[in-house]
Automatic annotation (TrEMBL):
Superkingdom of the source species: Bacteria
Keywords: ATP-binding, Nucleotide-binding, Transport
PANTHER family xrefs: ABC TRANSPORTER ATP-BINDING PROTEIN
Protein name: Multidrug ABC transporter ATP-binding protein
Species annotation: Salibaculum griseiflavum
GO molecular function terms noted in the UniProt entry: ATP binding; ATP hydrolysis activity
UniProt keyword annotation of Lyase present: no
Length: 306
């Protein structure tokens, strides 16, 4: 798969000496959804702003579709759509006009059919003649996405696109993003909602303290780092692991026994565990397995970098 965005040794250092980005390297594949996760102040927004040419890098290079964002700024920027965190819009402008204007900023000819298609895909067509001041926060965020798509970009950056949006609208926007991917748009997503990344992303990138510490296929990451547990319900609840089982990697939680193991190993030890539990005179009533969530993996990775 072709890399549509290439970031090499990107550094951003401010006059006070603070280094927001420290030699970042990142290749983004055409047509994928990649989620960039990181705590507040990790450098997510600075990275996006620099790729989009809003912030000037101190060192390093970025190309979009083969175009350098400094030497060939116009061509590189024309390939990019950006949905920022802030929902600043022209309050007295109508929805359809603000989207048409955004298209014109990139030198694109007027195309009412395309604008209608974009607005309909975001459930905004019925609001096309409404002034932006009349819209809810969630609908304003959809307008920002429509503006970003108006010039038909091949790469779309979504910086916290569902922040402050209710759960139902958030899920609707997930569907919009999936639809964009099906159209071949490459999507880079930053989010505080880990379930958002887990639901949509093909790859996960972890950024912390201005550095990319990991970029990996989401499913592979969860298989590699996600701990698996076997929860053993007993006929009689226990407050502690029985002495006869103390040599096993067991914990007692909520009256049940919990066994942690590597799901990728050829020998999980589960068969021997169940035999030992029976030999200890304990009666099992139910067994359940559980895989670590992406959120738990993310928290553990950030703690390692602390």
């Amino acid at each position: 798969m072709t890399d549509i965005v290439q970031v090499k040794d990107l550094t951003k250092r401010y006059d006070n000496g603070f280094e927001a980005l420290s030699g970042v390297n990142l290749n983004i594949r055409e047509g994928e959804i990649i989620a960039l996760l990181g705590p507040n102040g990790a450098g997510k927004t600075t990275l996006i702003s620099t790729i989009c040419g809003i912030t000037q890098a101190s060192a390093g290079s970025v190309t979009v579709g083969g175009h350098d964002i400094v030497e060939d700024y116009r061509r590189a920027r024309s390939m990019i759509g950006l949905v920022p965190q802030e929902t600043h819009v022209e309050s007295f402008e109508k929805v359809v006009r603000t989207v048409q204007f955004s298209r014109g900023l990139f030198g694109k000819r007027r195309d009412d059919a395309l604008v209608e298609k974009v607005l309909r895909s975001l459930s905004l067509w019925e609001k096309k003649d409404s002034k932006l001041m009349q819209l809810s926060g969630g609908m304003k965020r959809r307008v920002l996405i429509a503006k970003a798509l108006a010039h038909e970009p091949r790469v779309l950056f979504l910086d916290e696109p569902t922040a402050g949006v209710d759960v139902e609208l958030r899920k609707d926007m997930w569907e919009v993003v999936r639809g964009l991917k099906e159209q071949g748009v490459t999507i880079i997503l930053t989010t505080h909602y880990i379930e958002e990344a887990e639901a949509m992303a093909d790859r996960i990138g972890i950024i912390n303290k201005g550095q990319i510490s990991l970029v990996e296929e989401k499913d592979a990451l969860m298989r590699r780092l996600g701990q698996k547990t076997l929860q053993i319900e007993l006929a009689e609840a226990v407050e502690a692991v029985p002495e006869a089982l103390s040599h096993l990697p067991l914990t007692a939680e909520g009256g049940r026994l919990v066994y942690s193991y590597d799901s990728q190993s050829d020998h999980t030890g589960i068969t021997g565990l169940l035999n030992e539990i029976r030999d200890a005179g304990l009666q099992m009533t139910d067994l359940q397995t559980r895989q670590s969530s992406l959120e738990e993996i993310f928290v553990s990775l950030v703690k390692e970098d602390a």
